Amino acid sequence: MTLCGPKASGVVGLLFLHLCYPWDTGCVALSPSSGPLPRPLRLQGPGAATGFLRRLKRSWVWNQFFVLEEYTGNDPLYVGKLHSDVDKGDGNVKYVLSGEGATSIFIIDESTGDIHATKRLDREEQAYYTLRAQALDRETNRPVEPESEFIVKVQDINDNEPKFLDGPYTASVPEMSPLGTSVIQVVATDADDPTYGNSARVVYSILQGQPYFSVEPKTGVIRTALPNMDRETRDEYVLVIQAKDMVGQMGGLSGTTSVTIMLTDVNDNPPRFSHKFYQYTVPESLHVESVVAKIKAVDADLGPNAEMDFRIVDGDGLGTFRISTDQGTQEGVITLQKPLNFEERAIYSLRIEATNRNIDPQFLTLGPFSDTTMVKVAVEDVDEPPVFALHLSEMTVSEAAAVGTIIGTVTAHDPDSANSAIRYSIDRNTDLERYFNIDATTGTISTAKLLDREVNAIHNISIFAMENDPSQIGKGIALVTVTDVNDNAPVFAIEYETFLCESARPGQVIQTVSAVDKDEPLHGHHFFFDLTAQAVDNHNFTLRDNKDNTASILTKRGGFRRQEQSLYRLPILIVDSGSPSLSSTNTLSIRVCRCDPDGVAQSCSAEAYMLPAGLSTGALLAILACIFTLLVLVLLIVTMQRRRKEPLILEEERDVRENIVRYDDEGGGEEDTEAFDMVALRNLNVVQDPMVRRDVTPDLPSLFVSRLAYKTLPDNIIFREFIWDRLKEADVDPSAPPYDSLQTYAFEGSGSLAESLSSLDSLSTDSDQNFDYLSDWGPQFRKLADLYGNRERKLWMF
């Protein structure tokens, strides 16, 4: 089999199956690839050598074809030719092509074996195609040769420019870097075949960014081209880098990218003050820790490289002022450490130094990285309040001191040069009881009331010192301690409750008492106990002073009986050790009780027999008090529930909004007494009385005057007057609703057949009926008798 093509590959082996004819340009014979053939085959064709060769397996094998990519011709591109030595040229053999792109990209002439590419090929999309070829008998369609595989390789052309897949780039390099410092490496890729020609061999060049930076042609490494580039002069550079294939030769394709290079900061600039001298003025009343001034040193560097520390290196205000660094603004903050006094010093001078905190040793030659300036602080005089010689004056006074006793004196002065006169006063908020007075001119403090140490032992009073200007007030404190005198007698420490068992033996201690004294002697309390003169000779009890401010009460006899005497009162005399000494008589109540064998009191006094077991008198009283309180609460609740607030108006109020009822009932006129209840109507002689309040006595004369007035009016204006009167009543009625409402009145003119059925109308008539007999009917009819029995009084009795 023979494979012919315009760019056939090299042939493997030396044994040819068929010779190419001279007119088959570019035809190359292929040899078997499976080793030497034992059976020799005869070579045919012009110029072929005589002899026979015998083959073992197959008579045609080939390797690969080469097809140029991006073919732009109109006719199909000729790829190559297949030919088998079995093919005698009589048309009995046909060639079949299968595999990648068969029939869609590659076609074969089944008679001649010519292969053509019908589509434009792109190596970057697919670099090679694997195809299979087979020679078949045209009549039987059976293989005359085994199927073989070959490759069509797409040969590359330079049709892709280099591309920077990671661009554009951003990089940084420290300022002041030496020449040749590496900044960044850029990489361009070319999609062409790197193994064929120079289509993918790229070189780099810089189009923009010189003379500051350079790029290595082969590696794409960008380096600094100038030494000591200063960020403070220029901090950003934009480079344009080109990558060109074909080793940069003419005709090669190229691509570009941008590289932005930032110069990062280094500490190469020292701080500098804008001025060599600063002056500030502060009032002498400025509080300690207040800010006096802020100064700033300028550093062209950034971030940590611009951080600095301030300190006072010299001057006469070292102890009065302090300077610190504001970390946010990098300013030097001068604060006051001691109070200022214009009269003592009016001007302070400070020499302040600012030094970089982070110094780079490699730039020490650019130093020093510090700067100094002078600061002058002038103190401004202000009107200051008076100042006390002692802010806290401690004084003592005896609680026995008489009114007007001088305790001590406070002094204050005007710190200003004017030295104004001072007036003193006591802040009465600290001396509400007005125990003390102060001389306004001298500042002498004296007592205004008698003092009692036991009520208040220490008085903390505030003293005001004022100049002529009342706004300038100085404040001092006088701490007055009231010393003790022996003016309180000792008494029992507690209210003792002593129980004496009926089985007590003579000499038995039944109680130990102690005493307290409100006074506080310097050497402590020492009390003496004894029975009063009246109780010394009693036959029941005796007292023993324990010499430790306590005393024991002992029995003189036994055989105490509750039935004989249930309560004993023993007067005890207590004397203190003061000078002069004071004493008091305290009575100890001793109750005789029945005790158990352990000496615990069970019941005391005769009343105890009538008490329930386990309950004392106090417990019963508490229970009774609780029961009484509960009964009172129940009664209050019942009373509150029964109370009902009665309306002041006798007639019940009605809400008539939208309560209009329509009746389609037409009567037969006034003669028709069946269709309408004539009694429900009122005659003009009986007008509806205004609503009467329970808490107001009705005015009867005015009531009848208003009734009689309608009788004197003509019939044509009766209704108008009646409506106007009712409108006025509704306007002034406090119980009328605050919204628009419908008012209805049962009122007829003088021609109505309905007469008034009210007995009240009889008061205004001339009826001769006598109702005096109602007085004889008893108290139930007393009200009616008052109304109708006496004609002269009935108007006022209503």
UniProtKB/TrEMBL annotation:
The entry's keywords: Calcium, Cell adhesion, Cell junction, Cell membrane, Glycoprotein, Membrane, Metal-binding, Repeat, Signal, Transmembrane, Transmembrane helix
GO biological process, one term: cell morphogenesis
GO CC annotation terms, alphabetical: adherens junction; catenin complex
Membrane topology annotation: Single-pass type I membrane protein
Coiled coil: none
Gene3D superfamilies: Cadherins (2.60.40.60), TCF3-CBD (Catenin binding domain) (4.10.900.10)
Residues annotated as domain Cadherin: 84-164, 165-273, 274-388, 389-492, 492-609
Secretion signal span: 1-22
Record-annotated membrane-spanning stretches: 609-638
UniProt-recorded Gene Ontology molecular function terms: beta-catenin binding; cadherin binding; calcium ion binding
PROSITE patterns (alphabetical): CADHERIN_1, CADHERIN_2
Main location: other
Localisation per UniProt entry: Cell junction, Adherens junction; Cell membrane
Function: Cadherins are calcium-dependent cell adhesion proteins.
Protein name (database record): Cadherin 7
Organism taxonomic ancestry: Eukaryota, Metazoa, Chordata, Craniata, Vertebrata
